[in-house]
Every structure is written in structure tokens, then in C-alpha cells.
Protein 1
Amino acid sequence: MNKQSKEQFVHQVFESIADKYDMMNTLLSFRRHKAWRKFAMKKLNVQPGQSAIDVCCGTGDWAIALAEKTGREGRVVGLDFSKNMLEIAEQKKSEKQYDHLELVHGNAMSLPYEDHTFDYATIGFALRNVPDIHQVLTEMTRVVKPGGVVASLELSKPVWPGFKQLYYLYFNRLLPFLGKVFANRYEQYSWLPESLKHFPDSQELGRMFETAGLEKVEIYLLTGGVAALHIGYKPRL
Ligand SMILES: C[S@@+](CC[C@H](N)C(=O)[O-])C[C@H]1O[C@@H](n2cnc3c(N)ncnc32)[C@H](O)[C@@H]1O
């Protein structure tokens, strides 16, 4: 699949599954995604008054967690190219009455912000989906301030022997069927294992963080490597 058709395909996937996305995430990950998100927030240690952009924010969970930490004196942007995903994020935002959270329709490949704007740039379960990982990491690095933080929480390639084989059986074979049964979407959920096949392992992604200009890269493997958190720092001027 070339870059443009991947982008169009991914866009169509998320436009079509938006209303089931949160429920399916919880079901398919056995609720693990909530623990992974909590772990990521603990490591980021966001402080009141800081600013953050959550790229590919989807239905907004990470952006909302960031907005909780920055408080109203801070600023958080959630950006996504799926209007249907953003609509659900908007509902959650209005329930919380978070005026300091701004939801923006945009493309991760070209962020509509000046250099050195945010303290943090995060991306959750989405680097697998973008047409060019290097470009997105470079964009995220560009928009954070010197000394700022870029973080990705993403599915990865499990490392525990035994568990690994069992996991792939679930992920490659069973998961698309669960997608069909619970969300009536087979093709869209077959995309999930497919997208991981071509995605770098955690060490390689760590090197891509460095190539994008980040330093002191930290890698945390979660649930035996089913997911990984990468954190990198933009060098101070
Ligand atoms: C698996 S969802 C993750 C959503 C959210 N970050 C989370 O943690 O639940 C991937 C999201 O990336 C968005 N996305 C994929 N490619 C994008 C791009 N090039 N620009 C902006 N958003 C993109 C999709 O619309 C979708 O909402």
C-alpha cells in the first residue's frame, strides 16, 4: 500500500468505527490500555500550567488525561484527522467542561503549530497508522520546546517466549473475528494485526526517536511487550 492509499484507508477505518472505538479498545485489550495510559501519565509527570499536544487524539482519552494534569492554567490540544473520532472527544470534553482543551481537525504529518510551542507532544496507538513515522516524530519534535518531551504509547512486539505465540494467535486470528462479532467490522479489525507487522520493534522505534532529534530515549515494555512507551527529550538550546 503506498503512503497516500494507506492514509485514505486509515481515515476510512476510523471514520467507520468511531462510535464503537472505546468499547472495542477495552474489550480487545482486556482493559489493559487503561493501565498503560495511567503508567504513561505517571512517567510524563505533567505539571499544572504546562502545555501539550496529543497527536492523533481519537476519542480524546489521552488529551483529557493531559488536560486534567495541566489544569485550567495550562493548555492542551488534541489533533486528529477523523471528524467522527473528534466528535466523541468533543462530547467527553463538554462533560468535563474543559475549556483549556482544544480539539483540532488536522493531519499528524504536518502540524499547524510554530516551532517550540508545547512542553509535551504525545501520540497514543497511532504511530502504526500514519503514512510516515519519521515525519510524524520530526513534526512532534519540532513543535515541542527545547527540553520538551515527545512520547509514544503503542502496541509492540511481545518478547516473552510462550506468551508471544499465544498472543499472536489471539491478535492475528481471533481479534478480527471479535471485531466482526462486536462491532460488525471485519476488514477494519483485520487492519490491526496487519499494521503491527510492518511496525518497528521497540528498539528500532527508540532509534527512530533519536533520528528525529530526540535524546535520552527511555523505553518501557508493558505486559510482556504487548505495548511499549517511548519517551524522548528535545535537546536544550
Ligand atoms: C487507534 S486510534 C488512537 C486514538 C487515541 N490516540 C487513543 O489513544 O485511543 C488512531 C487515531 O489516529 C488517527 N490518525 C491516523 N492517522 C492520522 C493522521 N495522519 N493525522 C491525524 N490523525 C490520524 C485516527 O483518525 C485515529 O483517531
Protein 2
Amino acid sequence: MRFETIKYMEWAKIHQVLQPVTYDLSNSAMAPPVPADIGVTAEDASWEGANHYGHPELKDLIARRWGVKPEMVIPAGGSSLANFLFAGALLQTGDAAAIEQPYYEPLGRILEALEAKVHFVPRRREDAFQPDVEAARKAFEKGAKLLILTDLYNPGGVHLDRERLKAIGEAAAKHGAKVLVDEVYLDALWEARPPIAATLGPQFLSTNSLTKVYGLGNLRAGWGIGDPALVHRAYRVYDYLSVLNSMPTDRVAIRAHKNLDRLIARARERRDANFPLIERWVASRKDVDWLPPKYGFISWLRLKSKATSHTVQDLLRKKYDAQVSPGHFFGCPDHVRIGCGLAKEKLEEGLKRLGKALDELG
Ligand SMILES: Cc1ncc(COP(=O)(O)O)c(C=O)c1O
């Protein structure tokens, strides 16, 4: 095991929360609801009860909503933890593994921490950010036991093409490997959401949480879904890390899961109101281009001028009380990522300020 600093995580905690700005375009999540929105009561603070190897009611709610059996579900503190548990359950030191590239840094760091030999599966702009199936096949041929993908793709925002996913799954199955799909943004497809990856075959694993679409990141309520034998192993990895979920978290998560449709409606309203502002803003700029994401809260903007994610971010914070998510954390200093889950007035003003910073740097 080897734990380096996850630079993006450190940046996000400090810049988004501990030293915030007024116009924060960097967040990829829907703004949080208040406890009353999901009917939280004082009794939910009780720590009594049994959630050892997963709270039964919570597992049932998750299983029913995403169309799987309860024994395929492991509730865990965020999709981040579920990702780690699955990777920890699958990989031994020195095993080969693979990940999409560019990638959300914490996902790659899991593989590094487990001292895996890492192969990359490109998601190229000219391929509409879909994963390169041939590269995935090669990674499995070279012994990758696990491939990590995201759907919607962070940072590109696109929905993972089902035909490609199935082709990747066939290659994985041939080599006895697994494909973990982090689906933390997927529910933003609303009623167009397809069956989750974990329903497509035992080689697939899905992770998700209440963080992004539902706005409940501080609750730390995520889950993993996979074949029961692997989920059993993942619970044994959890025994090393935190033993149990917090019982109050599970109770509040149960409230949230009973109100998901209400939280979805709220998120959808925000996306419908806010995304056109980003579309109009991008259309007004000669120094930025993108592949407009059909769904979700994140937009991945390419900078066509001299500006880089470093200079944009520095100037925005120093002069404009604003910020974006810098592309260099994804290995792409010619990109910035912005979100549209914040209040409309803040987004509007934030975009104006981003425009001014780009004008100055261009
Ligand atoms: C792809 C991806 N997975 C996981 C997370 C973290 O989610 P959680 O709060 O569920 O751990 C993020 C947050 O940015 C993310 O982009």
C-alpha cells in the first residue's frame, strides 16, 4: 500500500469548502437540499440497531430502485469508498488494472495505492469521449483484472455508449476481469437512464451515491453493486477501514432513498434552468469550445487562447472571487470544468467573471 496526496481532493476540500469563493463554478454536484425536504426527524440521530454487513432496509431500497438483489448491494460512505472496497477486494499488490484516461484523479490513485500496474483506456475528444474498446481489450489481454470507467464521464460529461460497454464487458468476461463503472452522475439521465452496468452481467460492478444528483455529499451515503461473491469480499475489506456505516447516516439515507423522485425533480429543474446559460455563454465565446453534454451538471471546456487552467484559476480567485475546476488535475491544462448545480444568479455572475478573466488572459 502506498498513499500519496490526491491533489484534486486536497484542492477541492481547501478551495471549495475551507477557503470558498462567492462564485464557485467548480462543483460537479447539485446544491444540497435541507433535511426537511426528505422528512428527517430527531429519531434519525439514533445509533441503535443493526447495520452490520449492510442495513437491510437500505439494501432493499437500493436493490429495488436499481433492479438488483439485496445481496448484490454494499452501502458505503460515498461512491469513493465503494470504489476502494471493490478495487481492494479484487487486486493484489502488483496486479494489472486499467482506467479511462483522462480520469478523475481519486480513481487512478486507488489503483496506485494498491500498487497495481496501470494500463490506460483513452477517451478521446475526436471519439466523443467514448472509451477505446481496443485499448480495453489489450489491457485485459495484458492481465488487467479491473477496468475503471465513469458514466457520465468525468470530466467529459458524456453518457457511456451501451454497445461499447457491452463489447468491453465481453472482453473482460473472456479474461475473468471486472469492469467497474462509477455511475455517480448517471441518474441525471432522468427517465432515460438505462439499466445500470451491474445488471449487464457478473463481470460488471456499479458504484453510486447520494452526492451528485441528489446533492447529499456531506451525508456520505454511497453504495456498490456487484455479484454477491465480490460484494461479500468487499464487506471484508470494509472491516479493515470503518467496520460499519454510521447508523444515523443510514437512517437519513433511508429517508432520502424514499424521496429520490422528489430530489430528482429538484435537480432536473435546476439543470433545465441553468444549462442554457452555459450554452449561451459558450456560444458567445471565440476562445472556448466543447462537446455539449446532453445530461448532467458538468461541462468540459477547451481553452483555445493562451489561457491555461492554472492561469484562469489563479486570476479568477485573486481578482474575481470565482473559480472553476482546473483541467490540470485531469492532466489537461488546456481545459476547465464547470458545473451548473449552483443557484442561477451565482452561475450567471460566475460566467460573466470567467469571461472577464479569459478576456484578460487571451
Ligand atoms: C467520478 C466520481 N466518483 C466519485 C466522486 C465522489 O463521490 P462520493 O461523494 O459519492 O464519494 C466524484 C466526485 O467528484 C466523482 O466525480
